[in-house]
Predict the structure.
Amino acid sequence: MKSVCPGCNFGCGLYLQPKDEEMMALDYRRGILEIDFKKGSEVNEGKLCKFGVELPEYYANKAVSKVDGLEVEFEKAVEEAGKRLAGKDVVFLSFGDSTCEELVALSRLADGKIESGLGALSDIDESAYMCMAVGIPYEDIEKAKSIVLINVDPYVQYPLILRRILKAKESGCKVAYVGWRKPRNLADKVILLSPSTWIKTLAELENEFSEFLGEGCVVISDLHPHVHPAQIKTAL
Ligand code: SF4
């Protein structure tokens, strides 16, 4: 069965299928499903991160909803929580490593009032919202003439993006890295900065990158609530 990993908003394609008897006998703890890699999936070209590879195990762990210690249906638990919390000031907290399914459950429980945690960035120019919300197509990374990585090591953090960067390099793209973690062997130019002052210094480094910036340049930086807003502003 064709499916899409629910782990994050990359939406990697994969196949899910029931294990045969032999596989069940070998690996019954990891549930009744196994995955197969979907090489035709444009997003991930068959590759999956650790979460995706372990998806059958995720599904094997039954989500349990309880009210006063007794197991109930999810809808009943949400209804009961709504009744008990009604009229109270309640804050729901979640983090970026929640799965899409968990975020859907949370948004239903929180009645759709979701604050992204990016309020600290409200003074960023509105013209940048589009690329912050949507990002760019993978093909644009593959076609980039130059790529600047801002404190991002794709080998460690973004293996799917790494594949696109390697393809771009095959076509002559030059890669620069600036940040305070030593990256793996990917960049043609590396500037390591001090963790304590690196955001200030980063803003002063434009000349160092002049050969990389310009038409056809892609800048890759993290954007999530744990990233210092100054890093994002500098990248934008
Ligand atoms: S990157 Fe990982 S968690 Fe996200 S959709 Fe792909 S396999 Fe799932």
Notes: The chain has three domains: 2-60, 65-109, 119-235. The CA atoms of residues 204 and 234 lie 10 Å apart. The beta strands are 2-4, 13-18, 33-37, 65-67, 70-72, 146-150, 174-179, 189-192, 217-221. The chain has eleven helices and nine strands.
